[in-house]
Design goal:
The chain is mainly beta and 471 residues long. Among the domains are: 29 residues; 66 residues, Immunoglobulin-like (Sandwich), CATH 2.60.40; 81 residues. It is built from three helices and 40 strands. The strands form ten sheets. Strands 1, 2, 5 and 8 form a four-stranded mixed sheet that branches. β14 and β15 form a beta hairpin. The termini are far apart.
């Protein structure tokens, strides 16, 4: 119906309705926006409060969730809404130790705890193998195969550790290789990017000899120095290409191809340290700068173009590690002045540089590249590349083994004769089993078994501890 000036009351009612609609839409939009930001109306006080969302998962079983000592009647893999402030979450499951974490909700936080690893209350352990002397060990990158060898032997033991039962097989080096190695002792084992190829380092009179081993065709194994015609003092697999290696002869760095025929080409001179992966090569090189010799760190791309990333480094030992998370390539180098971390490598953005004052440190990236562990003795720093955070903690006691990433979120180490599993931020440190320093503990790919070396009556034992409560 047409409203003329003769109907002021109808016009006022219509305008009032428009105003109510506008107010309703505005209030609704405001409340919806606040709801998506974690706000909700407190029915008790009528005030607007802000919440955060917490997602909790647990392995190897689901568990009951307790928030601030209150059973919320939910299992893990649930969405939990919590108000802003400090909270403690505890996870409980029959036959497993309690897991807990204190944290703070700020604003409309989304907290995703996808890393809780529940440890059985009673851990069952069995002996897998016994060794007369301290074994040399290496595990494949997929955490399915363990290789061990006695220093004085030319026979390797290969363990498949990812099944319900560990199986063992022997790998005998060809007689010609064993004879040529003579009295040289085994000092290091390394797997290639897959679990088929192994690099064995033998040492005698301060000289290293490297043997390339094909597990599936042992007869095709060969001594690298002899086959390439170069005396190497350090060889590494390319972490992304099993058919490619890099080797240092004195200070000359070579790229080695395993494909038939074998080939080598000189990549750089005056190299002091190096690390390779499928995308780039990192080196510390002695170079001339303004008429004086300095050590600088740089990367070599797949076109063999060198770009220096650091200023002059102090003399000393260098450790280099590579990592990749969410497409972001990173590299860290430990020096006598501290640790330098470079990220955004290979991207169009400027390379980021971060310095950590931990000198001569042990470095390792988690399997997914999210975390970088920087350790100097008992002091640990962990950089989180997802949330750009840093966690600092101490390993309480005497550290007796290397630290090793058990999975993407946990490290393992032997401290005061006890093998431990520790979360990335230092929380929830769990004692697993008495162990020797001979091997940094590791888990298989399923993270349902934990492997250590035990020592009793001068005999070394490979131990398998179950991380699942089978009862």
């Amino acid at each position: 119906m047409h409203l003329s000036p003769k109907h002021p009351r109808a016009r006022a009612q219509r305008m009032f309705s428009y105003v109510l609609i506008v107010i309703f839409v505005a209030v609704g939009t405001f409340l919806l926006t606040r709801y998506t930001q974690g706000f909700e109306l407190d029915p008790g006080t009528g005030s607007l409060i802000q919440n955060g969302l917490v997602l909790v998962e647990s392995e190897p079983v689901e568990s009951s969730v307790f928030v601030d000592d209150r059973d919320i009647g939910e299992l893990t893999s649930s969405r939990i809404t919590l108000p802003v402030g400090n909270h403690t979450i505890k996870l409980r499951a029959n036959g497993y130790r309690e897991w807990s974490k204190s944290f703070q909700i700020i604003g409309s936080d989304l907290v995703w705890m996808n890393y809780p690893l529940l440890i059985p209350e009673k851990i069952s352990t069995n002996s897998v193998a016994v060794f007369g002397t301290q074994p040399i060990t290496a595990f494949s990158r997929n955490r399915k195969i363990l290789a061990t060898g006695q220093p004085s032997s030319k026979i390797l033991s290969i363990f498949n550790v990812n099944g319900s039962v560990v199986s063992e097989s022997e790998l005998n080096l060809p007689e010609a290789i064993s004879n040529e190695l003579g009295a040289a002792t085994l000092t290091e084992l390394t797997f290639a990017a897959d679990d088929q190829f192994i690099l064995a380092q033998f040492s005698q009179d301060s000289a290293n000899t490297y043997v390339f081993i094909n597990r599936e065709d042992v007869g095709s194994s060969f001594i690298m120095d002899k086959s390439y015609g170069i005396d190497f003092n350090k060889v590494q697999f390319d972490s992304g290409d099993a058919d490619q290696m890099y080797a240092l002869a004195d200070s000359s760095l070579y790229r080695l191809k395993r494909t038939n025929p074998l080939s080598s080409n000189l990549v750089a001179e005056n190299v002091l340290a190096f690390r390779s992966d499928a995308k780039f090569l990192s080196i510390v090189q002695k170079t001339n700068q303004n008429g004086r010799e300095v050590n600088k760190f740089g990367i070599i791309d797949n076109r063999d173009s060198l770009t220096f990333l650091s200023s002059a480094l102090s003399d000393g030992e260098y450790t280099i590690v590579h990592g990749s998370y969410d497409g972001d390539e990173s590299v860290a180098i430990s020096t006598s002045d501290g640790t330098i971390v470079f990220s955004n490598i290979g991207r169009t953005q400027q390379i980021k540089t971060k310095r950590v004052k931990v000198i001569n440190s042990k470095l390792s990236f988690s399997g997914n590249g999210r975390f970088l562990l920087i350790r100097d003795g008992e002091n640990c720093e962990v950089l989180d590349f997802e949330f750009n955070k840093r966690y600092s903690f101490k390993l309480s006691g005497t550290v007796q083994s290397e630290t090793r990433w058990v999975d993407d979120s946990h490290i393992s180490v032997v401290v005061d004769g006890m093998a431990k599993i520790i979360e990335f931020d230092g929380a929830n440190s769990q004692n697993i089993i008495v162990a020797d320093k001979a091997m940094a503990p590791f888990s298989n790919a399923k993270t349902d078994a934990f492997f250590t070396i035990g020592l009793a009556k001068e005999r070394y034992t490979l131990q398998q501890s179950s991380l699942v409560n089978d009862k």
